[in-house]
Each structure stands twice: as structure tokens, then as C-alpha cells.
Design brief:
By secondary structure, the protein is α/β, with parallel strands linked by helices. The protein is built from 21 helices and 24 strands.
Length: 585
């Protein structure tokens, strides 16, 4: 089919999915409520299925198009749709109603029920009020169903992102197969979309096109015309010059998702780094938005623009967890420092690759966003505990909040699970407070009876200096309760930090409390990292400490699953000694 016809593929598939739920049979009489684009496509698909159709709308112009497609017409502004349906069916009632209208009232659903025969079907494709009346459905035993977009697979990450198709013998019409079906109907002439095109507007006037759709009831299909002589650019300039005076840190941010928009972007804007690129491989619009908002010079969907830019020396990575390790390695191989939001890696093999890449480029730094180290409260804790002569006893509690079982973060391949993906923060924090690496990990997760077990876990840590600690990571609490708290016990003294707002001490002469606004150390972390790259010196967090916290998160998963204590130096001996890759979690 031509490009203009192909532009109708998605909305036609939405119409088709609604028709499939109706399950029409040859000769049935079906009402289509709403003769907009989806309604007019629905009429054609029903006619192609051998059904008789009554179109109901307020626009005589749209009803005239419906009649061209072989439907009867009822103007709801001038007549009674229910009376028209009764007359059309000799009082029996219609077999089904497809609602493609958009209205706040629930009167449309009521009228649809009134039109139907006993055991009729109603399918909602559009958006209408749903204050349903039981009496409308009870005596006739009507069925009511809401259609979801363009078919099975929609909103299923495994289907849409990973390409895991549903088997055809069991799910005949997925969203992909619906798209193919409407293209086939266009090609065969069963579905005509040319009559639906009312306007063709140049892309440069796209805002006018949207305004026309909103204000001009005569507009149906508005085609945006792209200039045929302009090649698409994967990198576009956002500012006319350098974002900041030339300095020693020229940076790119890869990723324009929530963390980039809400945390990394605004923090980088307050540093002295020259912000040259926002790269978002999945979408140009997000890259442009973030670049404009935080003063980046360019937005791009081309990762090679970042890797091949000789001026660029630092990359900040805020992509999905599964891509972190590969991007860190690519940054190092391209001669650039790498800052990556946690986790550093998803498995031991990825950690091994990062270690080898870092060893091959010792002049470059790797940093993980373990920001809580940089909170003013944690800095005060370190000061108060300086000079201690005994190991510490520590407890960290995280009210992590409920995340539904199907979320990406629970996916072992996409998110790695919440212990690897988030609890690594708290493992690193306790190691930092103790000033000692984690030596052993023993963990237990919630038993059977919950959809997700691993995000309700107690982790017991032993450190090389003799300190001990626990991390209780619980994903089944109330969102109104504070998220994080840490307690430190030392030589007859106690420190308690409540949600990075209030630090209290007992047994510390001259110190009672420190109160601030919520400060988890993000800004200090980014500013100090940029300054360190600019001035040189040792990494803010040595790579072996980043690896230690990461391996401890893997060990927690192994310990909970296998019900055993994991000693890091034994479990990951090959990795830590520089040998072959390990095959553990």
C-alpha cells in the first residue's frame, strides 16, 4: 500500500480489534456508535465480514461517508437512535453495538443496551462514561467488553520489547497480525482510507494540524506531509553554542528516562561540566526535551556520535539496567570516563568484562551512582565514628514500596530484580560506613504465598574488619511510611538516620542531631565526580569497592535461593583473582 494508506494502519488495527471482540457473523445487524476515523474503518470491516451496519453520529457529513461505505445512517441530533434500531430490526434488537465515540456521558452505553436483542454484545473501543446500570444488562443477559488497543500483546513487555510472540494456534490475532490484516484489507480494496483524508498539511505546520483536529468537526484524517528532499538527522543542535565555557569535562548523558529527567539532568546542569549530548536511542522527542530543559548542546539518537566525538571525555549512563555494563565498557573503549547509575552490572560475567576494560584503560575512571555516601548526614556519621577502636553493628531498613509482579525491574534479564537493582545502594552504604569490604552474606527471602519473594529479603552482612550489619529490604510496606532508616551501634553510642532528613546521636559529646531537607547526596555526588575528572586524582569510589557491593548483591540472591552463607572471596575467587569468568548469579 502507499505511504498515506499505511499511515492509517494503527488506528485501523484498533478498529479491527474491537470488531474481533464482537465476533460478527454473516448477516448480523450491528450498530457503530460514532462515525469518526475508527468508526468509519469499523463500518468497512463489518461490511467486509458480511454484516449490515447502522451508523450513529451527530455529524451529517460523517454519516454521508458512512453511507458511501454501505451503512444505514442515523443522525442522533435529529432522530432517536433507539427508535431507528428498533425499526431496522423489526423490534427484535440489534445483534451487537460497537462504541467508537468519545463522550463523557454514560448515556451512550445505556442506549447501546436498549438497542440490543437478548444476549446481544456491546464492545467499547472509544472513551465514554461507564456508570453502568444493572437493569440494562440483567434481563437481556448482555455482554459488555472493553477493547484494548490493537490486540493481544499490547502493553506486554515480553511481546513488544523482547519479541516473544504468542503461538498462532492459541492466539490467532495478536497486535502484529492485526496490523498485517488491515494492510491486507487495504491492499485488496476491502478497506478504503482515501475517502477519510480531509487535509494534507506540511510538517512545518504540524501545530496547525492538531488545532484543526480539535476545532474543526469537518476534519477527519489529517495527513502530515514530510519534505521529500530533507534527510532525517539523528543529531540536532539544541543550543547555538557551547553550554558552558570550555573546561576539562565535556559530557554526554545516555538515556532520557525518569532518572535522567528528574535527577541526573538537573544535577549535571549545576556542575561545571560542558553538556554536549543527550543520547536516547529509543526516541528523539525525549532526547530533545531533556536537552532543552537542562542546557545540553545536542540531542541525538545516534550512539556513535557520542563514542566518536574526540572532544567528549565523560559519559553519564542512565539507561535500563540491562545495558549498563555494555555501555560502561564501550565508554572506556572509546577513551571516556564512565558514570553509571546503579547497578554496575547484572551478573558476574558483566562485572568481569568491566574489570578487564578498566584494567586496559587505567587512566579512565568508572563510577557508580552510590549517592548515599555523599549525603551530609552520612558524612557526619563518618566524622562522628572516626577514631573508633571497635567494629560496628549496623542496621538498614528500606520500606521499598510495592511494585507489581509484571514490572520490568523484576525481570531477571531487563531489571535484574530489586536486590541487584536497588539494594546494592544499601550494601555499599554499610560498607562505606564500616570502612571495610563485605566478607560474607547470608540472606533469607519471604516464603511462598506472595507473587514476588525476592523483594522481601533480610540480608546479614559480615565485614572484613569484624563489623556486622543487616539490610532489611521489604517491598510490601505502606508508601506513606518513610522509606529508609539506618542505625549504627558503636562503643556505647548510637546513631540513627531517619530518611536522610534527621540524624540523631546518643553518647556523642557535643552532638545531638542534624536536620536538613531530604538529601540523599545526588548533587554532591555529581559535582564531586565532575570536579575529580577535571582536577585528576584517585576515583571517588575505588573500583574494588564498586565490585564488592555489586558481588554482595549477587551473593544475597544466591544465599536466599540456596539457603547458605556466601563468602565472597570463595564464591567469586576466579573473578577476584583475575582469572576466568565465573558462572554464578
Amino acid at each position: 500500500v502507499g505511504d498515506e494508506a499505511a499511515a492509517f494502519t494503527v488506528l485501523s488495527a484498533i478498529a479491527l480489534q474491537g470488531i474481533r471482540l464482537v465476533n460478527p457473523t454473516l448477516g448480523e445487524k450491528i450498530v457503530v456508535f460514532g462515525a469518526g476515523l475508527i468508526g468509519l474503518v469499523s463500518i468497512q470491516l463489518l461490511r467486509a465480514s458480511g454484516c449490515q451496519v447502522l451508523a450513529v453520529d451527530l455529524s451529517q457529513q460523517r454519516l454521508a461517508i458512512a453511507e458511501r461505505f454501505g451503512a444505514r445512517a442515523c443522525n442522533a441530533a435529529a432522530g432517536d437512535p433507539m427508535a431507528a434500531a428498533r425499526a431496522w430490526t423489526n423490534g427484535v434488537g440489534v445483534d451487537a453495538v460497537v462504541i467508537t465515540a468519545s463522550a463523557k456521558t454514560d448515556e451512550i452505553v445505556h442506549q447501546a443496551a436498549e438497542m440490543c436483542r437478548k444476549r446481544g454484545r456491546i464492545v467499547l473501543v472509544g472513551v465514554v462514561g461507564l456508570n453502568l446500570r444493572r437493569a440494562d444488562f440483567y434481563e437481556k443477559e448482555l455482554t459488555f467488553q472493553v477493547s484494548c488497543s490493537y490486540g493481544p500483546g499490547r502493553y506486554d513487555e515480553s511481546y513488544e520489547q523482547k519479541g516473544q510472540d504468542y503461538p498462532l494456534p492459541y492466539v490467532r490475532w495478536t497486535e502484529q497480525r492485526n496490523l498485517e490484516a488491515v494492510l491486507g484489507a487495504m491492499e485488496s480494496g476491502q478497506l478504503a482510507v482515501e475517502p477519510l483524508i480531509t487535509d494534507r498539511i506540511p510538517l512545518a505546520k504540524a501545530a496547525e494540524a492538531y488545532q484543526k483536529i480539535l476545532t474543526d468537526s469537518a476534519s477527519l484524517g489529517v495527513i502530515l506531509e514530510y519534505p521529500g528532499t530533507v534527510a532525517p538527522a539523528r543529531t540536532v543542535a539544541i543550543t547555538s553554542g557551547a553550554s558552558k565555557p570550555a573546561g576539562k569535562v565535556v559530557a554526554a548523558m545516555i538515556g532520557a528516562g525518569n532518572f535522567a529527567k528528574m535527577t541526573m539532568g538537573p544535577a549535571l546542569a549545576k556542575t561545571q561540566a560542558r553538556l554536549k549530548y543527550v543520547a536516547e536511542l529509543a526516541g528523539a522527542a525525549a532526547a530533545r526535551h531533556v536537552a532543552r530543559k537542562y542546557g545540553f548542546e545536542n540531542a541525538t539518537t545516534d550512539a556513535e556520535a557520542v563514542w566518536n566525538d574526540p572532544d567528549l571525555n565523560t559519559v553519564f549512563i542512565a539507561t535500563g539496567h540491562a545495558s549498563h555494563a555494555a555501555l560502561v565498557c564501550k565508554a572506556l573503549e572509546s577513551g571516556k570516563h564512565a558514570f553509571v547509575e546503579k547497578p554496575l552490572a547484572m551478573n558476574v560475567e558483566e562485572v568481569s568484562r568491566i574489570i578487564r576494560a578498566a584494567e586496559a584503560h587505567p587512566q579512565l575512571q568508572v563510577m557508580v551512582g552510590f549517592n548515599r555516601r555523599f549525603s551530609p548526614h552520612v558524612e557526619r556519621i563518618k566524622q562522628l565514628l572516626a577514631g573508633r577502636s571497635e567494629p560496628l553493628a549496623m542496621h538498614f531498613a528500606c520500606n521499598a514500596g510495592i511494585i507489581p509482579p509484571g514490572a520490568w525491574v523484576h525481570d531477571p534479564e531487563a531489571g535484574g530484580g530489586r536486590i541487584v537493582g536497588e539494594a546494592c545502594h544499601f550494601l555499599d552504604l554499610l560498607a562505606y560506613v564500616a570502612g571495610s569490604p563485605i566478607a560474607t552474606v547470608a540472606a533469607a527471602q519471604m516464603g511462598k504465598g506472595v507473587a514476588v519473594q525476592e523483594d522481601k529479603m533480610s540480608i546479614v552482612l559480615a565485614f572484613e574488619d569484624g563489623s556486622v550489619g543487616t539490610v532489611n529490604y521489604f517491598g510490601n510496606g505502606h508508601k506513606g511510611y518513610p522509606k529508609e532508616a539506618i542505625e549504627v551501634y558503636s562503643e556505647g553510642r548510637i546513631l540513627r538516620l531517619d530518611n536522610f532528613r534527621r540524624l540523631e546521636g546518643w553518647g556523642f559529646p557535643g552532638f545531638r542531631r542534624l536536620k536538613t531537607r531530604l538529601d540523599k547526596g545526588h548533587q554532591a555526588e555529581f559535582s564531586q565526580f565532575v570536579d575529580r575528572i577535571a582536577t585528576g586524582g584517585e576515583p571517588l569510589i575505588p573500583l574494588e569497592q564498586l565490585v564488592n557491593a555489586t558481588l554482595a548483591s549477587f551473593a544475597a540472591m544466591t544465599s536466599a535461593r540456596e539457603e547458605r552463607t556466601v563468602r565472597l572471596t570463595e564464591e567469586y575467587a576466579a573473578l577476584l583473582s583475575g582469572g576466568a569468568e565465573d558462572n554464578h548469579e
